[in-house]
Amino acid sequence: MQIDGREIAQKLLSDIKKRVEKLAVNNVFPGLAIILVGEDPASKTYVTQKIKKATEVGIKTILVNLNTGSESKLITQLEENLTKLNNDKSVHGIIVQRPLPKYIDQQLITDSVLPEKDVDGLRSDSKFEMPLGLAVLEILEKIFEKNRPRANFLEWLKPKKITVLGKGITGGKPVADILRKNGANPNIIDSKTSDPDSVIKNSDLVISAVGKERLLNSSNVKKNSILISIGMHKALDGKLHGDYEEEEIKDIVSFYTPTPGGVGPVNVAMLLKNVVLASKNSTL
To answer: What number is the average pLDDT over the span 156-167?
Structure first.
C-alpha cells in the first residue's frame, strides 16, 4: 500500500495553521529565515516548497539568496547574514539550505546558528529534533495505525528488524538517531558493509537515504516489509525517483512511500512545526 505523504503533511499543516492563529492573538508571529548559497536546482526547489507551505500556514519568511561574488566574499556575506538573523527577534528559525558548496565549512556554519533558532536540529545542542527524523517517525505511526490501531506504537516498532541505508547528517543519521531514542535498534548500511543485500532481505523495515537507482528491488526486499525512501535521484526521464521503482516493489511489500510525495512533504511540515515551537518558546 502506498503511503501518501502529502495527505499526512496536509493534516499536520492544518494543525500548525491553527497554532499560528492562536499565537497571533498574543501578537506572536512565527518567522523563518532561509539562506540559499549558490544555484543548485534541487535546493531551489526545496526552498520554494518550504516558503510556499510556510506562507500557507501564516509563517513569515525571509529568503537570503547568495549566489554572486568570489568564494571569500560569499563566505563573508553568509557569516554577516547569520549574525544579523541571530539578532533579529522577529526571526525564530534559521535554515542554511544544504548541500553547501564544498569551499564552505559546514560545521562552522551549523554552529553559527543559535541553538534556539536551529529548527533544522543540526547542532549537537539544538533545542529541536531534526525534521527528517520526525517525519519518518510520523509516517511510521500512520502505518502502525493502519495495522494495529489499538496497540502501542512503540511496542509495535521496537521488535522490528530495521535497516537504515546511509548515515549522512541530513539523511540516514537523524533517522537512526530518532529510532534509537524510541527504543529501536536499527542496522546501518554504508559503503563498507559487506553483503548489504542479505541484511536488507532480512529486514521488516528499510529506510533508504542514498539516492541511487534501484538500490532496493524485487531481489533484495522482504515479502510484506515496509520501505521508506528518503534518497532521490534524477533519472534519464528527467523526473525524480527514489531508491526503488514503485512498480517493481509495490506487490511485494506491505507499505511504501512514493517519490515525490512521500517523506518530503512531511519533512517540510515538521520543520514548520519546529518554527512554531521556537516562536512559542521565545515568549516564555
So the answer is: 96
Listed in sequence order, the DSSP H helices in the chain are 5-25, 41-57, 71-86, 106-112, 131-147, 153-157, 172-181, 196-201, 246-249, 263-281
Q: Which CATH entry fits the domain spanning 131-263: 3.40.50.720, 3.40.50.300, 3.60.15.10, 3.30.70.60? A: 3.40.50.720
The pLDDT confidence band at residue 234, using thresholds 50, 70 and 90, is confident
In the numeric block, the cell 511489500 is attached to 253
Residues 6+ apart with CB under 8 A from 219: 197
Question: DSSP secondary structure string, 168-183?
Answer: -TTTHHHHHHHHHHTT
Q: How far is the C-alpha of 156 from the C-alpha of 153, rounded, in Å?
A: 5
pLDDT of residue 139: 98
Q: In this structure, which CATH number among 3.30.390.10, 3.30.420.10, 3.40.50.10860, 3.20.20.220 belongs to the domain 27-114?
A: 3.40.50.10860
Q: What is the pLDDT of residue 63?
A: 97
Backbone angles phi, psi at 28, to 5 degrees: -110, 125
Query: SS3 of 192, please?
Result: coil
Q: What pLDDT, on the 0 to 100 scale, is given for residue 284?
A: 64
Q: Do residues 76 and 121 touch, judged by C-beta distance below 8 A?
A: no
